[in-house]
Amino acid sequence: MKLERLLSIIILLLNRRMVQAKELADRFEVSVRTIYRDIEAINGAGIPIVTYQGTNGGIGLAEGYRLDRNVMTNDELAAIVTALRSISTSYGNEQHVQLMEKINSVVPPAYFEEFQHKTSRVLIDYSPWDGNERLRPKLQLLKESVDRCLIVGFVYSSAKGEVSHRVVEPHTLILKGRQWYLQAYCLEKDQFRLFKLKRMKTLEITPGRTFIRRELPAHESVTGQSSSEPSPVTQIVLRFRADTRHFAEELFDIEELVAVGDGGWQVSKAYPEDEWLYSFILSLGHHAEVVEPLHLREIIASRAEQIAKIYRNDNTT
């Protein structure tokens, strides 16, 4: 990911007087052109980097420059390590480990014990309970294609069950709602699209095909937004029985639960009405009942009846 690469370059230059661009490109498995773009970004952030020409030339920090507390404090370094540890639960690789080691190496010895305490107070685990071993090869391949601007192809199954072969320019990997997505420019649809990694099959880099990154349209500049029309939002009311309050508290904030006259509990929430919502409500089983709206109640009742027919071995329609 670009942020960790920039941080790694900065810390590397703090510890070495000069590094060649080719060495950095090889280390981070990107092109030399990408390294020079990174250098421009670091310069733009106020950290002066200079390039030295000639046989013994390379890239280095301006003479006398030091990354002091006005730029990055110990607490800020601790926040970076905490974020990296959390990201590594779902998107870990050797570069994360190396970067955390580098940051640890610049922490003053007198502060190290407190630093270790601060970096272990919070861990946000993004990984699913069943692991994500099948996703890791996809993530690694897409990370390489994003970094090197390589076109990829895959077979994609949409949420509607439509199967198609896609060829795309990978733009950004997005972790949203515990699911990984690829934001990419689809050459078939001629626009940016959001693809769920779990719906991809036979993912591969297209040999010899590269691309120049495109500007995201304004309406897609927010992380995770898609050009497709969003599902209409529906205000729903769910009722839980008195003896299933603990179940409701696992799903909703306790302050969202409102007591009702029969000893039960109700919660009112707005959700996009789509297949996910139907599946979510059905997953609540007998613990919850849709009170409003009426049309949603009828949809859930119909689907529950279809499920009941399957388990009764009743094939009548």
UniProtKB/TrEMBL annotation:
Matches recorded under SUPFAM superfamilies: Winged helix' DNA-binding domain
Superkingdom to which the source organism belongs: Bacteria
Gene3D superfamilies the record matches: Winged helix-like DNA-binding domain superfamily/Winged helix DNA-binding domain
Residue ranges of every copy of the HTH deoR-type domain listed in the record: 2-57
Keyword Nucleus: no
Xref: PROSITE patterns: HTH_DEOR_2, WYL
Gene Ontology molecular function, alphabetical: DNA-binding transcription factor activity
Pfam families the record matches: HTH_11 (PF08279), WCX (PF25583), WYL (PF13280)
Entry-linked InterPro entries: CBASS_pafABC_assoc_protein, DeoR_HTH, HTH_11, PafC-like, WCX_dom, WH-like_DNA-bd_sf, WH_DNA-bd_sf, WYL_dom
Coiled coil: none
Keyword presence, Transcription regulation: yes
Record key words, sorted: Transcription, Transcription regulation
Name the record gives this protein: YafY family transcriptional regulator
Organism: Paenibacillus thalictri
